[in-house]
Amino acid sequence: MNNIDITPTIAISRCINFDKCRYNGDGDNNEFINTLKDYVTFVPFCPEVEIGMETPRKPIRLVEINNMIHLIQPFTKIDLTDKMLDYTNMLMTRLQNVDGFIMKTRSPSCGIKEVKIYDSDKKGANSRKGKGMVGGRITEMYSHLPIEDDGRLRNFKIREHFLTKLYVMSTLRKIKRTKSLDTLINFHKSNTLLMIAYNQSKLKELNKLMNQVDSIPIDQLLDSYEKMLGLIFRISPRYTSNITVLLRCVDYFKKNINDDEFNFILELINEYKNHKVPFSVPLNVIKGYVIRFNIEYLNNQSFFDPFPKALLDVNDSGKGVK
Q1: Which distant-in-sequence residues (6+ apart) come within 8 Å of 59 by Cβ?
Q2: What b/e sequence results for 181-204 when a residue is b if at least 16 CB atoms lie within 10 Å of its CB, and e otherwise?
Q3: 253 to each of 72, 245, 261, 288, 293, how far by Cα in Å?
Q4: What are the boundaries of each domain within the chain?
Q5: CA-based angle 57:58:63, to the nearest 5?
Q6: Which residues contact 182 (CB under 8 A, 6 or more apart)?
Q7: Which segments constitute the DUF1722 domain (predicted)?
Q8: Cα–Cα dist 11/100, whole Å
Q9: Which residue among 18, 59, 175, 188 is least packed, with the fewest CB closer than 10 Å?
């Protein structure tokens, strides 16, 4: 792909594997995070601790008062809204150079979805679902980056999508620092098949931008490219799109293999289509032919290895998935 050393930077809720700073004095242990530690730089943070709250502490909750969301500690009746808003503003500046976020599930501060917002600080109050005070701001300001919570990352497909977007966006951020047009062009070429799998219509828009590289200042070009790339990788690809790209890859070498080999590949793709085998099965078989026939264009495509293989753990509890 690109000759760029990629070590993504991830901002993460401190209570996930880094500190026992939850309200009850406990912390969490997530095996995926333990694996990631060897491949990324983590920036842990804890909003509650960093606004001066003790550990352990009485729980806090989001309460909607006169159509405004407040952060309340029901036991003490203390309103922490202003403190948390000031902290959030500071944090957004502090985290400008990260490549992704892993947030604590359903936390009133860090949660990015499924966070309870109550209509009162009283016991038994009704609630609706929303976002945490810090997590919500992060999803607004950094929507082009991969943002997940630790619960959802127990799901294999969500992890795979998170890692793919993380490494793509991290690579681009490093290209932005170099301001090298040639490097951007090579990046675009090497990610073409991956982007086809993710979103062909948005890729067409990005291709139009790349056709204007000689008439756009490099800083403006890179900023526009980043925003459009984030849209391409907004959601994970459909299996039908993956099949489209697999068949496109087969077209490069099908004249060099016999009918039995060709039919075997088609059978594997069909089994993937019918959910009998994972995507990695036809993908790796096709990659074997790419290596065998030394097809330079395909060899350079991130579609086959969008992130380090050691991070591809197929174990999947499925917990926390919505």
Answers
A1: 23, 73, 74, 75
A2: eebbebbbebbbbbbbbbbeebbe
A3: 63, 14, 11, 11, 7
A4: 9-154, 178-312
A5: 130
A6: none
A7: 193-308
A8: 6
A9: 59
C-alpha span between 303 and 297 (Å, rounded):
11
3-state secondary structure of 23: coil
Q: Could you report the per-residue pLDDT of 68-98, keeping only the tens digit for each?
A: 999 999 999 999 999 999 999 999 999 999 9
Question: E strands, the chain, where?
Answer: 9-13, 41-45, 61-65, 68-73, 78-79, 100-103, 115-118, 127-130, 147-149
Q: Measuring CA to CA, which residue among 148, 132, 139 is closest to residue 10? A: 148
**pTM, full prediction:** 0.93
- Each residue's pLDDT tens digit, 116-168: 999 998 989 999 999 999 999 999 999 999 999 999 999 999 999 999 999 99
Question: Using CA atoms, how far apart are residues 115 and 136, in angstroms rounded to an integer?
Answer: 10
